[in-house]
Known about the structure:
3 helices, seven-stranded antiparallel β-sheet
Amino acid sequence: MAFDADPRWLGDAIWPAGSEPVDASSGAEPPYAVHAPPVDPGTFKDALARLASGVAIISCWDGPHEKRTPRGLLVSSITGLSVDPPRFLFCVRKEASSHDALLAAGACGVAILSARDEDEALRFASPARAAERFTDPRWDLALSDAPRLWGGLTSAVCVIDAAIDAGGHTIVLVTARQWGTRPGDPLVAFDRGLRTVARP
Length: 200
């Protein structure tokens, strides 16, 4: 499945002060390779595909108010960043069709999807179904801040606080201004596809 936003992003490991890896040999030639071999992108994508994660639709307005167009993309890099302030963090591939519009909008909708939202997720994951986006009657397109999906497990309207350059991606930090939650089972991305999580 080709997600509009790269479904995996990992930051550099942060080592506590004084605990950085060191060579424990006697000072002669190290008994092992100090530097890891180059990462093969293909095998690393395989490794990241094994990381199960929740999925969310990020939505925004594109263009001036009188001619604005709703834009959106599916991400599986979303995580809760803090409670005070109420923040999310997610990553967007710079080549994603909604990347520039999202950063210019200054606000966005965040809908963390449930198992019942799989078809809606597929609309936003596939460029071939782009024309079907925002046709679900649960979309509120009357809000001035951002389009909002009244569905999923969590639905929020957020302001964009920061956009951090991360190579081929942008890390986006947002603060929620309005939000609501609903009961349900989560929809997750795993092994290049969407899965549901059954409760015991």
